[in-house]
Amino acid sequence: MAVEEEVSKRTRRREIVTGKKFNRKGFRNESEEVGELLNSEFTSDLLKEIRALEHTYERDGVTIRLAKAYGFCWGVERAVAIAYETRSHFPTEKIWLTNEIIHNPMVNNRLAEMGVFFIPQENLKKDFSEVKGEDVVVLPAFGATLEEMQYLKDLGCQVVDTTCPWVSKVWTALDKHTQRECTSIIHGKWKHEETIATSSFAEKYLIVLNMKEAEYVSNYILNGGDKAEFRAKFKNAMSNGFDPDVDLLSVGVANQTTMLKSETEEMAKYFEKTMMKKYGPQNLNDHYVAFNTICDATQERQDAMIELMDEELDMVLVVGGFNSSNTSHLQELAEHGGFTSYWVNEPTCIGPDNIIRYKTSNGEDHVQENFIPARPFRIGVTSGASTPDSVVQDCLERIFMIRKLRAGAEEPAPAALDART
Ligand code: SF4
């Protein structure tokens, strides 16, 4: 029964994406003009120069060390380009986005200025009532749920899908889990749009946030436990009717593509060991399956951050949307490395009065006065996969300006910061 239902879901997805009004490639005839526009809006001459100088740049006593991999990933660039092409291809039609195209306020504001509407939502519930069959609907880089895709198909909309192929790769892994009658354990955040979309393609799933939750699940697999407590704990993070006594007999691990790579790997190994302990190595294949679904871009940015942390730095600047999961993990790495690290989402977080408003990886807001010292200093810089270089440049220009204003002033080193949580 389980397999039939999943084949049906997979078939439904196939039927939708091969439909005449479903576009997954964008509009090539618009791409030249769009390419120029994107170049002018989102690239940065300063960052190009820093890259040419082997990622080190000095101005007015500020030494920038730019991470080797940072900023816009291929999937995000592609999604934004397709969204721009869509506007150009359908100049008069009403265009909707089912969600933010990517997690960056500047990019989403630009699309809004171009007359692209966002489907209203409240408490994770979307209201499609304004969407009409003659409208065009764009699906964002992290995908849309099967239910949304089916609804739009039935309505007769032209759908333009910008889902990153890396995200689709995870969905394919889920198909394989179901073919093997496994429950998909998804390492992710149940509220994150990508995980909401991903889980809609699995028949049986459990979303596990971190190793603490993984240990709880593993303990249940090995020793049993209180089923009611389990269900209450994962009430927002499991498929309908999930029964831990039945649905954890065989599992596969998949992930939200932007999670911390090392934690996804640790979790996959942990569940592999759990199943080995429970059923014996000779039976492992009947109870555990693994496919590598970690996105290269996420991995490269995290690896580059780790490399940067080998250096002597006075502080780290992480630039990216506050709802960007991959950016939060870059900040998390810097904090765990013991660095004073500031996560900002836009240049206005850095005030000319030498105040920075920033977040820590746990989502807390902080304000730091006098964050730029009067003395020369070194700052490590990185940005999330959905951050345009132009935003990073504007942040750096503000830092140069404050430093210039302060140069010569007698100031103590900045106070110990509260970023290390
Ligand atoms: S971070 Fe990876 S999965 Fe996400 S859009 Fe970029 S390439 Fe795709």
Automatic annotation (TrEMBL):
Its EC number is 1.17.7.4. Gene3D superfamilies: 3.40.50.11270, 4-hydroxy-3-methylbut-2-enyl diphosphate reductase, catalytic domain. Pathway: Isoprenoid biosynthesis; dimethylallyl diphosphate biosynthesis; dimethylallyl diphosphate from (2E)-4-hydroxy-3-methylbutenyl diphosphate: step 1/1; Isoprenoid biosynthesis; isopentenyl diphosphate biosynthesis via DXP pathway; isopentenyl diphosphate from 1-deoxy-D-xylulose 5-phosphate: step 6/6. Its cofactor is [4Fe-4S] cluster. It is an enzyme of class 1 (oxidoreductase). The keyword Iron-sulfur applies. The keyword Oxidoreductase applies. GO terms for molecular function: 4 iron, 4 sulfur cluster binding; 4-hydroxy-3-methylbut-2-enyl diphosphate reductase activity; metal ion binding. It holds the Pfam family LYTB. Keywords: 4Fe-4S, Iron, Iron-sulfur, Metal-binding, Oxidoreductase. GO terms for biological process: dimethylallyl diphosphate biosynthetic process; isopentenyl diphosphate biosynthetic process, methylerythritol 4-phosphate pathway. Signal peptide: none annotated. Belongs to the IspH family. This is 4-hydroxy-3-methylbut-2-enyl diphosphate reductase. It comes from Rhodosorus marinus.
